[in-house]
Amino acid sequence: MTAETAERAALRVTAAAKLNLYLHVTGRRDDGYHLLDSLVCFAGVQDCLSFYPADTLDLTIEGPFGEGLSSGADNLVLQAANRLRETAGIKSGARIVLQKNLPVSSGIGGGSADAAAALSGLSRLWGVNGDAIDLAGLGLALGADVPVCLFGRAAFMTGIGERIVLAPQLPPAWLGLVNPGVAVSTPAVFEARHALKGDTYSPPASFDATPATVAELAEILAARGNDLTEAAIGLQPVVGDVLDVLERTETVFLARMSGSGATCFGLFESESEAEKAAQIISRDHPQWWVQAVPLLVDTA
User: Fold this and answer.
1) In this predicted structure, what is the pLDDT of residue 7?
2) Could you tell me which of 19, 23, 22, 15 has the C-alpha nearest to residue 41?
3) Residue-range domains of the chain with CATH
4) Average pLDDT over the chain, rounded to an integer
């Protein structure tokens, strides 16, 4: 196969940013894994993975957040690829190019979304029988967020990430995403939460209501929270600064941290409101990563 033919044969899969609209820590198993309850959705900004037929398996990383990111065996994309290849008995390889557009270690599932995209894209490239392989199980071994990223639609995620239930239809909404440029270690945040709260946990908070407007969605979410926020602020105080900035935005309905941080989001009703907020925040904090993007609400 010529290089030109290989380029034409590429598969491309996007890996959308994951958001935790709320996140409750509901307990801890004897093996140390925390039990979670979260409403997970996806935002209209993403990494992109391209897959090319090859004899060996290798990964190239490009994009604004690619610098310094390992392309070796410790990368979740290659871990996902190797697990799938071993499980499915695949002898072929692949050349994978990751366009890294999302901040690293930022609470929006970049690595998990990339791993899920790798499992999905390589299954297609290699002709893997999806009914014969438990992709969600493979994903869970890589991280708690990988199964829900494979699911790819707004969902309630519980347990250690293995239980996923389709969420009610969410209303059209826009988001202001803000990352202050600091990496936050998820294990460190959970350790800090335990130091603050001990064995005190939150109840599950899934709901059956179908909010028709952004205001109704914000009201539902306001009765819930992100149990990792205080711990993340203790480790990276700038997270609190980001939340303060978002909360002072004129038209924001809700400001919250996603996952274990440091990315936070503001919930807006319209594109123009989100864009205006993003412009003001970018002007005042040019070193921050700021995006105005839609909430992806299509559950078809």
Assistant:
1) 54
2) 19
3) 3-166 (3.30.230.10), 174-296 (3.30.70.890)
4) 94
Tell me the pairing of strands 93-99 and 163-166.
unpaired
Over 21-86, what HEC string results?
A: EEEEEEEECCCCCEEEEEEEEEEEEEEEEEEEEECCEEEEEECCCCCCCCCCCCCHHHHHHHHHHH
Please confirm, yes or no, whether 91 is among the known catalytic residues.
Answer: no
284 is annotated as an active-site residue: no
* pLDDT tens for each residue of 70-121: 999 999 999 999 999 999 999 999 999 999 999 998 999 889 999 999 999 9
Q: What is the mean pLDDT of residues 273-296?
A: 98
Question: In degrees, to the nearest 5, what angle opens at C-alpha 285 toward C-alphas 246 and 238?
Answer: 65
Work out the pLDDT band at 8, boundaries 50, 70, 90: low
Residue type, 162: E
Q: Which of 134, 145, 197, 227 is catalytic?
A: 145
pTM summary value: 0.94
Evaluate whether 196 touches 231 at the Cβ level (below 8 Å): yes
Report the C-alpha gap between 20 and 264 in whole angstroms: 10
Rounded to whole angstroms, the Cα distance separating 233 from 256 reads 12
**Distance between CA atoms of 29 and 160, rounded to whole angstroms?**
9
For the chain, strand residue ranges (E) read 11-28, 34-54, 57-62, 93-99, 155-159, 163-166, 174-179, 254-257, 264-268, 289-296
Residue 96 — φ and ψ, nearest 5°? -110, 130
Q: Are 69 and 110 in contact (CB under 8 A)?
A: no
Residue 262: cis peptide before it, omega within 30 degrees of 0:
yes
Q: Give residue-wise pLDDT tens across range 125-152.
A: 999 987 889 999 999 999 999 999 999 9
Return the ∠ at Cα 53 (arms to 11 and 12), rounded to 5°.
10
The active-site residue, picked from 18, 37, 100, 114, is 18
Q: Note whether 267 and 173 are within 8 A (CB).
A: yes
